[in-house]
Amino acid sequence: MSTATAIYQKSLSDSRRSLVGWVIGCAFMGMAYASAYPSQKNNLDNIPQNLRDSMNIDNSAAGYLNAAEFGLVLPLLLLIYAIAAGHRATAGDEEAGQLDLVLAHPVTRTQLMLQRFANLVTGAFVISFVVWLALLAVRGNAELTSISPAQFLAQCLGLALLASTFGALAVALGAATGRRTVVLAGTAAVAVVTYALHTMAEPVGADWLAYLSPFHYYIGGEPLRNGFQWTDYGVLVVLTAVCLAVGASRFNRRDINS
């Protein structure tokens, strides 16, 4: 095992069983919601018009998936995965009194944080890629052929980057505070508030608020209709880098277990 990536490889090995569960669960949910489109598309008319407008919902395949699958269910699952993995990156070991033991190995605090974050990102991309394959498997029978494989891939890429962004926030909070409760409550609160900004900005006549939300850069450009949104992806990457930089700075300055 290379010493340069030892923490990453160990984290990947330790999390492989739970990752398999996340992959199977998310792929199943993706297939189930996608397969329901033929029977559920007409029910979209019951959604309030202001919410339909803010989330680009209509009776098309892309509109249905924006409402149900990629607008709520899959982001929620990936955020739960990211927050759970993020709080274990440093805060879990610190509260268990084991972080000093880990840092006794030839690894810096920043390396520890980044390699465990890399494990989180690997999981997010693996889950999203398998979701993409699952959607392609049901695309024909579920009447989703108006969405190309590339458009599905564009949305799944955004999903992985969204999870990575909130995962970076969770890792940063854990590195900065060493408290799992702060990580879980703080990241969840940011997710709820920013999701509300994304969905409610247009109905309340304050469109600019949506630009404060990572969810806007995940789905606001409608990848299921317009394909890859590289500028939006870039914003998510920058947000991720900022979270990690702030977390690493604080992690390197504070006393562990204090």
From TrEMBL:
Record keywords, A-Z: Membrane, Transmembrane, Transmembrane helix
Transmembrane segments: 19-36, 61-84, 117-140, 152-175, 182-201, 233-251
Keyword ATP-binding: no
Domain of life: Bacteria
Keyword check for Hydrolase: no
Record-given protein name: ABC transporter permease subunit
Lineage, uppermost ranks: Bacteria, Bacillati, Actinomycetota, Actinomycetes, Kitasatosporales
